[in-house]
Amino acid sequence: MPRLMMKSQHALARPVCRMVGYLQHRLWSDHGIQLSTQFQVYIAVVLSTLLNGCETWTQYQRHMKLVDQFHQRCLRKICKLSWTDTVANTDVLDLCSIFSVKAMIMHAQLRWAGHVVRMGPERIPNALMFGKLSSGKRSREGQQKRYKDVLHAILKSYGIAPQSFETTWIV
């Protein structure tokens, strides 16, 4: 991984880690505050910062795994569950009445894609999403995912044909 990428990831992780540390000390350790209030603060402060701009992320499985681990760790701290308590991740999500990070990101990306599709063809986001290169081709080696590839996978998981999505909305 390039050095610049590692620095930017650490720069983005610092504010979230600082927030979580402060909240753990002040809020999540306090037994006088209701769990519902703690979850609302977690969603409003931590998740909104963590998922800022997730509409345009290209999801790789390794990144999703790290974000999901962080999410589960925070939820377990709020619920005061130890790692020795054998509670499945899905049970933790049900206990907290919250969705998984992957589901939240997929929802945000579908919402953004619907917004872009309804834009005029002269708008830059629409041109970038549905435009094609006039020349050149992708290499044969291992390819990096494109946002369009991620969007097609999300559409297929919801039972929407990607071709109908593009042709139905384009004016």
Structure explained in plain terms:
With 171 residues, this protein is an all-alpha fold. The protein is built from 8 helices and no strands. α1 (3-28) runs antiparallel to α2 and α2 (35-50) packs antiparallel against α3. The longest helix has 26 residues, at 3-28.
Topology:
Elements: H1 3-28, H2 35-50, H3 61-78, H4 89-96, H5 101-117, H6 124-130, H7 147-157, H8 162-169
Helix pairs in contact: 1-2, 2-3
Report the major sheet: none
Distance between the termini: 40 Å
Q: Which H/E pattern describes the elements?
A: HHHHHHHH
Number of helices: 8
> What class would the helix/strand composition place it in?
mainly alpha
Strand content: under 5%
Mean model confidence by pLDDT: 77
Question: Which descriptors apply to this entry?
Answer:
single chain; 171 residues; mainly alpha; 8 helices; elongated; disordered N terminus
Quickly describe the structure.
The protein has 171 residues and is an all-alpha fold. The chain contains eight helices and no strands.
